[in-house]
Specification:
The complex is a heterodimer of chains A (305) and B (180). Chain A has 305 residues and is of the alpha/beta class. Chain A has 12 helices and 9 strands. Chain A has helices at 12-29, 54-65, 86-95, 110-117, 133-147, 165-176, 205-208, 226-229, 233-240, 244-248, 270-273, 280-299; strands at residues 43-48, 69-73, 100-105, 121-127, 154-158, 180-184, 200-202, 214-217, 255-257. Chain B is globular. Classes of the chains: A alpha/beta (305), B alpha/beta (180).
Chain lengths: 305, 180
């Protein structure tokens, strides 16, 4: 495996191999000195043409915990502002001896294009509303560490499915690992190709609450155009927000997830987000171990397909 | 490569005797087994470490902590090897200030032990590290030697040494295969 561009390039054994590796890296990260020499000498560049806090920091921390060197590219302070193209930027970064690029871009398919131009490995860290494979892997790891396995888990993904690369990646990963996924959203926030997704659709959030093990809340993405298709924000909050009364109707062992960044008080009540059954902080910690696993898998054993 | 039928070098009883002797030697050198931690290197070092610990408990009455160590992240050939599954690294006590006895089945080039020394150093600062192996087959590529050896087995580079350990392989035994 040279690139990780979309979750559907991984079958179940391939996902499980990465999650097993990530479990070991969780142990490494719990040490007093959370660093191993596995990728000494490797150079990893993060090219984020779109904003990010946790994903970029998470990749950077993962790379450093594996002793790789990290180059960070930020568009606002780069020659992009002088009109340098995506291709020239990628080739420039490659020419500095980069072994792997982590690419985020608002345009669907941009990381795939970069992968076709460069010789090094490429990880898609989010392309438009398309894919975010390491998010799906870290969420699968979080659920596997909490429940032991995903087989038979009943998961609802709630919110702006239409604009969500997280939803597209996570539905595929969760169903590949044996969970059943229900999508909950106003019709205007469901994509047209929703039937290809592999999840069933529920229009009534309240009805399905008692039958869930996991509730995965998505962010309302005003920057990607959630705004115009919403009737009104208060109505959305009333019908699709995870408030305390909805939370209380969940089974007692059900858990809450959110990929961040959260709009507190919109899709999720702050008390629910910070409660004991929230896995949101665990998702962030598991993100580092998961990205270590992906970096390790892509950059070692190059003799392997 | 075609191989001769494997020749058995040690049977189950031989392996058990060698491990018991190593257990005695560890206690002899340290006047008992206080402050000693046995750390088995994945995969076959782990059950060997457990058996040595049982032997020490048997005749010394001391329960020595047993840890396991995977050196996969410390290899110097990660670029070329296929990605192997990692084993668990779990040492139940702090290694700092203790004597760590690394345990492996076969000592060959010494590169595994070099990686293990780094791996343990990342977990703490032991007072001393020692090495016990069931088989020393020679051909070192690094200045590393074992403190406790079950059996010295001179080999040629082409030969293949197979160790089977009860707990993983249902039986104890050591075999050598020679190319035709």
């Amino acid at each position: 495996m040279k690139h990780l561009l979309a979750i559907d390039q991984l079958d179940r054994p391939a996902i499980e191999e990465i999650l097993d590796l990530a479990d070991h890296f969780t142990e490494v990260l719990s040490r007093d000195i959370p660093k191993v020499p596995a990728l000494r000498g490797a150079t990893i560049a993060t090219l984020f043409f779109e904003g990010s806090t946790r994903t970029r920091l998470s990749f950077e921390k993962a790379a450093k915990a594996l002793s790789a060197d990290v180059l960070n590219f930020t568009p606002s302070t780069s020659s992009l502002s002088k009109g340098e193209s995506l291709k020239d930027t990628a080739l420039t970064v490659q020419a500095m001896g980069t072994d792997l690029m982590v690419v985020r871009h608002a345009m669907v398919g941009a990381p795939h294009r970069v992968a076709s131009w460069v010789d090094c490995s490429v990880i898609n860290a989010g392309d438009g509303a398309h894919q975010h494979p390491t998010q799906a892997l870290l969420d699968a790891l979080t659920l596997r560490r909490h429940w032991g396995k995903l087989d038979g888990l009943r998961i609802a993904i709630v919110g702006d499915i239409r604009h969500s690369r997280v939803a597209r990646s996570n539905i595929a990963a969760f169903t590949t690992l044996g969970a059943t996924v229900t999508l909950v959203a106003p019709p205007t926030l469901l994509p047209e190709d929703v039937t290809d997704f592999g999840g069933t659709i529920a229009s009534d959030f309240d009805e399905i609450l008692p039958d869930l093990d996991v509730i995965y809340m998505l962010r309302i993405q005003l920057e990607r155009g959630s705004g115009p298709v919403l009737p009104s924000l208060p109505e959305y909050v009333a019908r699709f927000g995870l408030n305390r009364s909805r939370f209380e109707r969940l089974p007692p062992e059900a858990v809450v997830m959110h990929p961040g960044p959260m709009n507190r008080g919109i899709e999720i009540d702050p008390a629910v987000a910070d409660g004991a059954r929230s896995l949101i902080t665990a998702q962030v910690s598991n993100g580092v171990a998961t990205r270590m696993a992906v970096l390790f898998r892509l950059l070692t054993g190059k003799a392997q397909p | 490569m075609q191989q001769d039928a494997p020749v058995q070098i040690m049977d189950g009883a031989d392996v058990r005797r060698a491990l018991r002797r190593i257990a005695h030697e560890v206690c002899e050198r340290h006047h008992g087994a206080e402050n000693v931690i046995l750390v088995g290197i994945h995969t076959r070092g782990v059950p060997l470490a457990q058996e040595i610990a049982h032997a020490i408990a048997d005749f010394e009455g001391t329960h020595v902590p047993v840890g396991e160590l995977d050196i996969g992240l410390y290899r110097d050939d990660l670029d070329n090897r296929p990605t192997t599954r990692l084993g668990r690294t779990l040492i139940p006590v702090d290694v700092t200030g203790e004597t760590v006895v690394l345990i492996d089945d076969v000592l060959f080039t010494g590169r595994t032990i070099r990686a293990a020394l780094d791996a343990v150093s990342d977990l703490g600062r032991p007072a001393a590290m020692e090495l016990a192996v069931l088989i020393d087959r020679g051909h070192r590529q690094l200045p590393i030697r074992a403190d406790y050896v079950g059996k010295n087995l001179p080999t040629s580079l082409e030969e293949r040494v197979t160790v089977r350990v009860d707990g993983l392989d249902q039986e104890h035994g050591v075999w050598i295969e020679r190319p035709l």
